[in-house]
Amino acid sequence: MRASFGSRLTTAVSLRGPLCVGIDPHPGLITAWGLPDDPGGLERFALTCVEAFAGEIAVLKPQSAFFERHGSKGIAVLERVIAESQQAGAVVLLDVKRGDIGSTMAAYADAYLADGSPLAADAVTLSPYLGVGSLEPAFEAAEKSGRGVFVLALTSNPEASEVQRAVNGGRATAQTVVDLAAERNIGVTPIGGIGVVVGATIKDLGVDLSTLNGPVLAPGFGAQGGTLSDIRTLFGKSLRNVLPATSRGVLQAGPDVFALRSEALRTRDAIVSAAGDH
Ligand SMILES: O=c1ccn([C@@H]2O[C@H](COP(=O)(O)O)[C@@H](O)[C@H]2O)c(=O)[nH]1
What we know:
With 278 residues, the chain is of the alpha/beta class. It has a single domain, classed as Aldolase class I (TIM Barrel, Alpha-Beta Barrel), CATH 3.20.20. The chain is built from twelve helices and ten strands. It has helices at residues 5-16, 27-32, 39-53, 64-68, 71-87, 102-113, 136-145, 161-164, 173-185, 228-235, 248-251, 257-277, and strands spanning 20-23, 59-62, 91-98, 123-126, 148-154, 167-168, 171-172, 194-198, 216-219, 242-246. The strands form two sheets. The chain has an eight-stranded parallel β-barrel, surrounded by six helices. Helix 10 (228-235) links the parallel strand 9 and strand 10 (242-246). Helix 3 (39-53) packs parallel to helix 5. The protein is globular. Residues 22, 24, 63, 95, 155-156, 197, 199, 219-220, 222-224, 245-249 line the site of the ligand O=c1ccn([C@@H]2O[C@H](COP(=O)(O)O)[C@@H](O)[C@H]2O)c(=O)[nH]1. The ligand O=c1ccn([C@@H]2O[C@H](COP(=O)(O)O)[C@@H](O)[C@H]2O)c(=O)[nH]1 binds at residues 22, 24, 63, 95, 155-156, 197, 199, 219-220, 222-224, 245-249. Pfam families: OMPdecase (PF00215). Residues 18-263 form the Orotidine 5'-phosphate decarboxylase domain.
């Protein structure tokens, strides 16, 4: 029986440091690496990332969209990325941002969070636009199988606030997402497996994360302009459970495996020392 996601994530971060590196095979990056923008180029790109990062970095986050754009051959590459990253000891968070009515959500949970599925990762990103309650089948599947989820709360893109900051019943939508995730994590040690996404680009947090007792994925660090200093200021006392995530900021160092790995480790070490100064 697999240990809980919170426990596996905590162990990975304590052994390897708090960094999530995104595997985002953008067409522009694939060609900048001298590869064709086709399934063969995708495979070379993605498996180079696995070779560079999976033995050293705590969490790898393949972005499903960049694999899906290559059709069934792209999905086959994604399956290999998940399996080979896990074999090398990385926690795999599949960034797929799913969300649907409960009965369909159950099928997504089967695809990404059930033992034996070829696309099962250690965790996935979920969108709460149909209501956090609609994600229940994914919460249950994750908890049952020792996996995790990260629900979008305050995303890193500038268009997000009109929906996520909207106030309903005195509470911003993002706070409702955090509070409902927190309810699922009550009493779980070392932390619960229901995480949230809060972008590293956010200037004013405006939500209370103090009772979450779960992980916070902070994408937008690097290429989107989020800095270490922003992350420290933004999260303050909640920094301990924050997982900064960057994709292009590290991937631009490719295609050389050693250059990619050293850029990821340099980024990780900078985060560790900034968190230590806090
Ligand atoms: O709020 C969010 C949620 C997810 N993302 C994803 O993270 C990476 C960011 O890539 P960079 O190259 O570091 O900008 C990408 O896959 C997004 O879909 C996010 O950016 N913001």
